[in-house]
Design goal:
The structure is a homodimer of 150-residue chains.
Chain A: H1 4-21, H2 27-38, H3 45-52, H4 61-73, E1 78-80, E2 88-90, E3 97-101, E4 107-110, E5 127-138, H5 140-143
Parallel strand pairs in A: 3-5
Antiparallel strand pairs in A: 3-4
Helix pairs in contact in A: 1-2, 2-3, 2-4, 3-4
The structure holds a DNA duplex (25 and 25 nucleotides).
DNA sequence: TTAGATGCAAATCTTTTGCAGTGCG
DNA sequence: CGCACTGCAAAAGATTTGCATCTAA
């Protein structure tokens, strides 16, 4: 599952990574990162908040949101989407996947012939029905735009 | 891109599909489905609402939400996620993808060795940086549960 | 005729923002 | 000490719900 060694390695390098990124090392950030480093559960901001609450009773949910976003922007965390709250609809039921522009949010369809052969992996006790692939990138329009900036 | 023929085919079969699903055919539903059938833009509920407004000035956003959800549950539409509002975080930055239980929302990591060879497809003017695969299914815990229910 | 659908308004939830106070470097 | 960070409260969005009214079948 989640090797203890791996958790330790992630935590050990955390202060240095913050320094490298020019981020101050605070209790809140350490606690939040620790929660994420110790789990494979992919918690929501709310869940992260609840997980750090015992340790930092005065932390605010807004801080959790800010820190998660910060970590994500610095590549410390991955953001995983679940459709649960996403709400983008598509009437094209044929086999295809999506290109998502990380800059402007535009979504386009892509055919991915190679995906046909992509068998559901060893999914343990999960019974897989189908899968979606999201290719992240920057669309032509955004790429040709002057400045980037978030 | 989106062949006129395809749009027509989708719209032509719509009444029958509603009947088959035991859904009443209303102006609102037809207009909403038509918007989705004519676009590849993957609109949000809000965008769908605005698109049907000229035709049905008195439609409410709540109806759009209800109808989209209904269509999705009946398999008329795909729901595409974008992370933009999803907010599930993961500190595992290594190559892996995700299993999502459609029943309870649980997310698990999966290694997908075959995905390594999955090249970014012909993405037009999109420059792809990375991709995520979400395998949908039902987890063991949910599968062994008595009733299903939404 | 009537079960199912809509529209409205209010309630919920999630996420973001502004700002004053705090603490890391 | 100064600037970045936090906490709070309020704002802004997104989505859902209850209910009276309407309408497709």
């Amino acid at each position: 599952m989640l090797a203890q060694k791996q958790v330790e390695a992630r935590m050990r390098s955390f202060p240095e990574r913050c320094r490298a990124a020019g981020l101050k090392l605070t209790h809140q950030r350490t606690a939040i990162f620790n929660v994420l480093a110790c789990t494979e559960r992919h918690p929501s901001p709310e869940e992260v908040y609840e997980a750090v609450l015992p340790e930092l009773p005065s932390i605010s949910l807004a801080t959790v949101y800010k820190v998660l976003d910060l970590f994500h922007r610095h590549g410390f965390l991955r953001k995983v989407s679940t459709e649960q709250q996403a709400a983008r609809y598509d009437a094209n039921l044929g086999p295809h996947h999506h290109l998502l522009c990380d800059r402007c949010g535009r979504i386009e369809d892509v055919a991915v012939p190679a995906a046909d052969t992509l068998a559901a992996p060893d999914a343990g006790d999960f019974s897989v029905s189908h899968f979606d692939i999201i290719f992240h990138g920057v669309c032509g329009a955004c790429r040709s735009e002057p400045a980037g900036g978030r």
